Amino acid sequence: MSSDIEIAQQAKLAPIEQIAEKLGIPQDTIELYGKYKAKIALSENEKSSLGKLILVTSINPTPAGEGKTTVSIGLADGLNQLHKNAVLALREPSLGPVMGLKGGATGGGHSQVLPMEDINLHFTGDIHAITTTNNALSALIDNHIHQGNELGIDPQQVIWKRSLDLNDRELRHTVVGLGNKAQGVPREEGFDITVASEIMAVLCLASDLMDLKARLAKIVIGYTYQNEPVTVRDLQVEGALALLLKDAIKPNLVQTLEQTPAFIHGGPFANIAHGCNSVTATKTALRLGDYAVTEAGFGADLGAEKFLDLKVPNLGKAPDVVVMVATVRALKMHGGLAIDQLANENLAALEKGFANLKKHIKNMQNYGMPVVVAINEFAADRESEFALLQELCRKEGVTAVRSSAWENGGVGAQELASTVVDVIAEKKADYQRLYLNRLPLEDKIKKIAQTIYGARDVSFEKKAKKQLKDFKELGWDQLPICIAKTQYSLSDDANLLGAPRDFDLTVREIMPKMGAGFLVVLTGNVLTMPGLPKRPAALDMDVDAAGNASGLF
Amino acid sequence: MSSDIEIAQQAKLAPIEQIAEKLGIPQDTIELYGKYKAKIALSENEKSSLGKLILVTSINPTPAGEGKTTVSIGLADGLNQLHKNAVLALREPSLGPVMGLKGGATGGGHSQVLPMEDINLHFTGDIHAITTTNNALSALIDNHIHQGNELGIDPQQVIWKRSLDLNDRELRHTVVGLGNKAQGVPREEGFDITVASEIMAVLCLASDLMDLKARLAKIVIGYTYQNEPVTVRDLQVEGALALLLKDAIKPNLVQTLEQTPAFIHGGPFANIAHGCNSVTATKTALRLGDYAVTEAGFGADLGAEKFLDLKVPNLGKAPDVVVMVATVRALKMHGGLAIDQLANENLAALEKGFANLKKHIKNMQNYGMPVVVAINEFAADRESEFALLQELCRKEGVTAVRSSAWENGGVGAQELASTVVDVIAEKKADYQRLYLNRLPLEDKIKKIAQTIYGARDVSFEKKAKKQLKDFKELGWDQLPICIAKTQYSLSDDANLLGAPRDFDLTVREIMPKMGAGFLVVLTGNVLTMPGLPKRPAALDMDVDAAGNASGLF
Questions:
Q1: What is the spatial distance between Cα A28 and Cα A100, in angstroms, rounded to a whole number?
Q2: Which residues in chain B (63-122) have CB-CB distances under 8 A to chain A?
Q3: Cα separations in angstroms, B419 against A151, B56, B76, B79
Q4: What does the pLDDT read at residue A102?
Q5: Is A234 in the B-facing interface, judged by CB distances under 8 Å?
Q6: Which residues of this UniProt protein bind ATP (chains A, B) (predicted)?
Q7: Above 90 in pLDDT, residue B48?
Q8: Which of A172, A175, A214, B379 has the least CB density, counted as fewest CB within 10 Å?
Q9: How far from chain centre, in Å, is Cα B122?
Q10: Are residues B323 and B55 in contact, defined by beta-carbon separation less than 8 angstroms?
Q11: pLDDT value at position B45?
Q12: For A12-125+248-426, which CATH class?
């Protein structure tokens, strides 16, 4: 059997200008990055009517993921086999997982976006531009303090952190500015992974370059000695930061193995950030395609909730259908089966674990979303298990369709594609937000925790309690919420599988993200800088004299 | 008068494919990065005879620089006005100075390389790839220690530092791995600016991707508890690191305002690194042009010395002529005139300061290099001063030609160009290395200090003394030397102007760069991470809705 990278390297790609031409993208708005990648200049000139929006999400995943990207790609390819003019809008991979454990984010098997090596490594440089912008701001803040501190920034209250697009636990807690008076002001500092940076969120939510600059200006970087918030505008550097992002804001166009156009742009994680690709890319896909297929990170409790409550108001368009990816093996895990037993047939565990899928279905229906379940097939799955899972979904009034897109590409997702088309035609989505922004801050957090996660209550640690009060005084309590939480459970405890009840969500800290326009709420022990595993994927990577990569997956 | 960026934005660029075609670069080796930038796949297929190599260097500069890049660009444009088929090979700018004080590195006035905004910001992502590779190695080292430390790496003896392509003094001295047992191993750490990273040196000296990988494998990252060196090969990650650099190693092609082809690739600083653009870019320029114009950073004591002693053996070709850039104002500064008086006519100061230029001329002649002095004109310079400077050079047997390339582009450097052509035709360069690698380490350092800098002697601080002994035992004493030193003086004290004598060079520390293949010798108080000035250039930068930059220079 061929590996992902072998399949990718044997693929016949079309020149990206051809893909763009097929979409009707004007030649002069295309900036090539090699033969198979391009950036598209933002423009409002394309057709004004928007296509149908298909949001792909999933149950709470196993550590390897449940193949949401693979299904998204297969679904788009399947739609195009049915001549439905589908366009993908996906996230850019982070080098953290690529070098670490999880691997890339370009799909798998016969459902991949290409060139997979480039997309998984530096791509068109967007994430590097974000890292640089993030750290340029840090350097400018610390330089301001060092050079006289006209704004009176309290070094102990700088909340803007440096970032790197790597898994590097060593940088979680640091002290910087050591040495002597000439080497900066000593203070505690931590590095986040770039996908958690507010710059990433801002890039993904901005409608254009001027909106981006306006959002950058609003970012709160810390507080003065008098506890007044200090913004990027106070530092007068929003112009420089926007300049550093002038190309990164343009969506990237690539293609699938079956030459379906794919906009891959922006990549916040869904556990520690808002988990959706950029508004600009999704909007471009909606303008150019009759169907736009997009995904939101991790389970529907994280990515889809944030898509619906945070991205939709910025996008100005709600999904027409939600495709919920589930796997037999993950549901068996949710049913209590040990991870090394997942290849064994176990209908009891599957039925028990179905509770997780059922909860996510209900949650999406609660937003007024029609739902189709996509069962992502694995080799070890049994027909008996597929049959049981489809029957369980049927009882909930939801169609579950098998996808073998990993093995068969678009052909393996044709049934899923036609089901999705039918559901969109037959069931009208009736999008309703989960909460109103004007609700008290505490109530908004509780609403998400209780409605989406199934929590009994929310407990606020001391620091968070003080922040509830402070943020209300600052008028920040009118913002929506972006919860940082483990992706493995509906709760904030990775070990609580299935559909846990009777747990309280513990809020540790709240972080103002005024540029993004939401508050990040840290729960449980979620980390904003991952670590590498004992044997990182990097140890198996290589490149030959001709520049061909190996060891990427 | 138009600013640099205004001139750049009014320029009419040719599509970069046209520039490539003119050079005879095969179409299928060109990877476009937008319309006006391209990477060229490395290949040995071009004409085997090499063009003439022109090395542009300078006297010790003022903080604003003496216009070495501007003269290089003007000279190449001037050569092409004379139909001499000249190609440029220059360095990539670092964002540190761009956001800080010195500005970009794309020339100035009517002698610029374009698109200046892109080249000065992220360009084709090479430096970001180097930063990422550097820091991925750091994360892999610390993860190895954290996950059981099979190699027995002593955390207190990790010499590999993290890096960022920014001026950020706050990161010079840090402590990382704080928190608790799960957050890594606490140790001291410092960040260098990326242009000082050994990865940058390796990329610039490697002949191809496999040589790059072999060099990466040799990098020493620290020592075990038994004081044995630990290499990248021991960590088994040279494949992953080379993979991260697979595109960065390809030279970038752009053009000047007059559509002269320019390879801009690699950008180590000359004060803290080896200061030359990449071997691959210079070789490509030599293969494609009848004349290749390249520059080496800062004064001839730094960049040119390193070009001649470190780059030439890797390039396999020595310069045919050295162009020494001097300015009236900098020589007056070397003659003792205060920086705010440099616009005033002062023949006495000029004559006194000429000692600096004279020393650099002698140094280059000592390498067997014919020398042409290029006087880079400034508006405040007087005819009397030009005349004196030319007369002083004539007495040394060297022609000094005025260049108004900044004001007039290639036309302003035509006389310089024809002089350079004549000197190459008439005087045969007879390249001789300054020292043999097999000399004792101490003697090699003394040779550079005494011959090039004019030092009386070299004093080694305690740490350096121990390293002289240790490195000899390790067999590292056979390597050539890369001295890190202030660029403002021939000595290691920025305040000693002119041609100081009777000073001792103080060696603080020696750093093994086994991948680059040299030892970096830190002298005086030179910093490997610069800081931002009181009012960073970033405060004046902006971008408009159409993506047009302002405030770059």
A1: 39
A2: 95, 99, 118, 121-122
A3: 55, 14, 13, 10
A4: 74
A5: no
A6: 62-69
A7: no
A8: B379
A9: 18
A10: yes
A11: 52
A12: alpha beta
**Chain B nearest CA to A367, separation (Å):** 36
Is the previous residue joined to B440 through a cis bond, with omega within 30 degrees of 0? no
3-class secondary structure, A527: coil
Question: What single DSSP character describes residue A435?
Answer: S
Sign of CA dihedral A212, A217, A221, A223: negative
**Once rounded to an integer, what is the mean pLDDT over residues B469-485?**
97
Mean pLDDT on B119-139: 98
B15-29: average pLDDT: 94
Whole-number pLDDT of residue A2: 85
pLDDT over 70 (residue A58): yes
Residue A206: which of B543, B36, B99, B125 has the closest Cα?
A: B543
Phi first, then psi, for residue A505 (nearest 5°) are: -85, 130
**B:391-420 residues touching chain A, CB 8 A cutoff:** none
Rounded average pLDDT over A314-330: 98
Among B52, B102, B332, B444, the one annotated catalytic: B102
Nearest by CB: B243 against A33, A531, A542: A542
Cα–Cα dist B264/B105, whole Å: 10
* CB-CB under 8 Å, A169 with B183: yes
Give yes or no for a contact between B264 and B277, defined as CB atoms under 8 angstroms apart.
yes
Contact between chains at A542 and B242 (C-beta distance less than 8 A): yes
* The two structure tokens encoding residue B353: 């300061």
Whether A46 shows a pLDDT value over 70: the answer reads no
Q: Using one digit for the tens of pLDDT, what is the confidence trace for A506-535?
A: 999 999 999 999 999 999 989 999 999 999
DSSP A359-388: HHHHHHHHTT--EEEEEE--TT--HHHHHH
- Confidence category of residue A195, pLDDT binned at 50, 70, 90: very high
Give the rounded distance of the alpha carbon of B344 from its chain centre. Answer: 31
Q: Is the peptide bond before A115 cis (omega within 30 degrees of 0)?
A: yes
Active site (annotated) includes residue A52 = no
Residue B174 to residue A174, Cβ atoms within 8 A: yes
* pLDDT value at A45 more than 70: no
Calculate the CA dihedral of residues B115, B117, B118, B120 and round it to 10 degrees: 110
Residues in the annotated binding site of A for ATP:
62-69
Distance from CA of A83 to the nearest CA of B (A): 31
Secondary structure class of A222 (helix, strand, coil): strand
Going by the DSSP 8-state scheme, the letter that residue A33 receives in this structure is B
Q: CB distance from B549 to chain A under 8 Å?
A: yes
Write phi, then psi, for A42 (nearest 5 degrees). -65, 140
DSSP secondary structure string, B243-276? HHTTTTTSPEEEEETT--EEEE-----TTTS--B
Is B146 within 8 Å of A531 when comparing Cβ atoms? yes
CATH of domain A126-244: 3.30.1510.10
What CATH architecture does domain A441-523 belong to? Roll (3.10)
pLDDT digits (tens, 9 = 90+) for B216-231: 999 999 999 999 999 9
User: Has A476 been annotated as catalytic?
Assistant: no
B176 at interface of A, judged by CB pairs closer than 8 A? yes
Q: Which of B187, B139, B132, B117 is nearest to B163 (CA)?
A: B132
Cα–Cα distance, A460 to A120 (Å, whole number): 38
Identify whether the C-beta of residue B309 lies closer than 8 Å to the C-beta of residue B373. no
C-alpha to C-alpha distance for A448 and A491, rounded to whole angstroms: 11
Q: Please provide the size of chain B in residues.
A: 553
Q: What is the pLDDT of residue B44?
A: 59
* Active-site residue, from A160, A298, A307, A518: A298
Across B190-203, average pLDDT:
98
- For residue range B491-534, what is the model confidence (pLDDT) as tens digits? 999 999 999 999 999 999 999 999 999 999 999 989 999 999 99
Could you tell me the residue ranges of all domains in chain B?
Answer: 12-125+248-426, 126-244, 441-523
Q: Where residue B101 falls among pLDDT bands split at 50, 70, 90?
A: confident
